[in-house]
Amino acid sequence: MTEQKHAAFAEKRIVVTGGAGFLGRVIVRKLRELGCREITVPRRATCDLTRAEAIARLLDQVRPNVLLHLASTIDNPPGRGDAAESFRNNVLMTTQLIDAACKLRIEKMVCLGSASSYPANAPVPLREDDLFAGLPAPPRIAYAIAKRLPLIQVQAYRERYGFRCIFLIPTNFYGPDDNFDPETCFVIPSLVRKFVEAAETGATEVTVGGTGSATRDFMHVEDCADGILLAAERYDKAEAVNLGSGSEVRIDELARCAANLAGYAGRIRWDASYPDGPARRLLDTSRAEREFGFLAQRSLQDGLRETIDWYRASGCRSAALADPQALASRA
Fold this sequence. Notes:
- The protein is of the alpha/beta class.
- It is built from 10 helices and 12 strands.
- It has helices spanning 3-9, 22-33, 52-62, 83-103, 141-161, 187-201, 221-234, 251-262, 286-292, 300-314; strands spanning 13-17, 38-40, 66-69, 108-112, 165-170, 172-174, 205-209, 215-216, 218-220, 241-243, 249-250, 267-271.
């Protein structure tokens, strides 16, 4: 991080919703490294962000200059989680936060969307202008719709009130200190857990859900956090902006790479009874590079190695998120 960024944040009062989650913890650490001393992370036990009165109390007490809205809830695992509750929570949190922040004339707000919000049939790479060109893919359609609705509110409030809120769409992010709970974790932590434990126990076969043919765009959580802070400092327009790695990888290639790095040499069996989801997902990141100079820096192989090393060293075998409200947006 540069001295310019240090000057941009050091004297600001900042609220980070979801600051106790995976991405949020990295954001908060980076802000502290930049010299920020007034960072507030609301927790659900004392500040339920689905309640307008709780939001009003929080913002009135803190009077933040900057609001980074990372908090989200997701119906996970797909098809077995509570899609209705997830939709309600995401819509209420974000809609009411934007409204309250606008009324208090907060200097700048950052709102996160989700790459899962893109239409199922949108051309790849996924471009921001296609976000509303169709319906997202099931089974998380309720979550995906809820995560893209705020863009309309953000744009309307900017036009009507001059409210400076930007909308960012991160791709799948991963890294050390992720959620490795086998019931709720996402692709990379799931693979890391499977292959590390298979290597440790001497297993000869590991089963992975899906066919392995789908492609995804994975970004290291440190890069994601850098992109968000860079946008918060330098970007101030109505258009949504993708944050991604710029690279597409097949899931079976990802699995083989993770297995090799974990020291697992056995067979990988693909269970096609599990849905693959969209056949391809790669974000067009040209707008982020053009508007505020963001380019992801970490290679997938280096990031996987770091994540595997962390998982082994941590002794983590069933890490669960400490705060349901702290689950940052995941594609």
